[in-house]
Amino acid sequence: MTTNKTRIAIFCSGSGSNFQAIFHALKTRQLNAKIVLCLSNRSQCGAMEFAHQNGIDTAHLMEKQFSSFDAFSEAMVKCLKEKQIEMIVLAGYMRKVPDAVVTAFTDRIINIHPALLPKFGGKGMYGIYVHTAVLAAGETESGATVHLVNEEYDKGRILMQRRVPVLSDDTPESLAARVLACEHTLYPDALEKLLAEQQS
Ligand code: GRF
User: Fold this and answer.
1) Which end of the chain has fewer CB atoms at under 10 Å, N or C?
2) Residues 82 and 141 reside in one and the same domain
3) 89 pairs with which residues across the strands?
């Protein structure tokens, strides 16, 4: 059966290396999905630049452009509806997704977290803080988790995880690099699985 390509919005705030990994995977694996929007709270970042270079529409939306958080949330929902978005992929988006967006896209928002949830998740657990906490806890392994997004930080259903070792001489930076490399294969794999489930 042929289905229309699922229309994806990527939400980013940073370098966008996961965005790039997913973009290439959609092409090389010929997945039935297309990135049609890159939404960011930053007008200039690696992710937005990559979108421009590859002809992907962008939206720069930040709270302070609006008179209230509700107005900001409504504008985000409107933008996503106008682009007929069917799935949202968070890839280094450094803001909490407004509840109105989570409600409008229930079970259609995924995130990647650079640790093995439910450990080392929640508010304040992002970037280098995660890897610092993993090392401080004396963990022998870490990894990455792809999960559905709900109203609570890092609490949605886990879709897929992948492990990496923690080495005795690791620094937060060396562990972060190993986990990020793992994310670049995990995120496309998890997205492929989710698309297959949704499109079957
Ligand atoms: C990744 O470590 C991801 O786990 C976290 O934000 C980072 C994004 O990196 N949510 P990039 O912008 O994809 O390079």
Assistant:
1) N
2) no
3) 10, 110
Where a domain ends, among 70, 105, 140?
A: 105
- Indicate whether 1 pLDDT > 60: no
Average confidence score pLDDT of the chain:
96
Tens-place pLDDT, residues 96-123? 999 999 999 999 999 999 999 999 999 8
**Which two tokens mark 129?**
């803080």
Check pocket membership of 14 for ligand 1, CB cut-off 6 A. Answer: yes
In this structure, what DSSP letter does residue 65 have? G
CB 145 within 8 A of CB 112: yes
Q: Which atom of ligand 1 is nearest to the CA of 46?
A: 12
Our answer on whether the CB atom of 114 is closer than 6 Å to any ligand 1 atom is yes
CB 44 within 8 A of CB 15: no
Instruction: Determine the Cα–Cα distance for residues 6 and 69; give it in Å rounded to an integer.
Output: 29
DSSP state of 95: S
User: Structural domain tally of the chain?
Assistant: 2
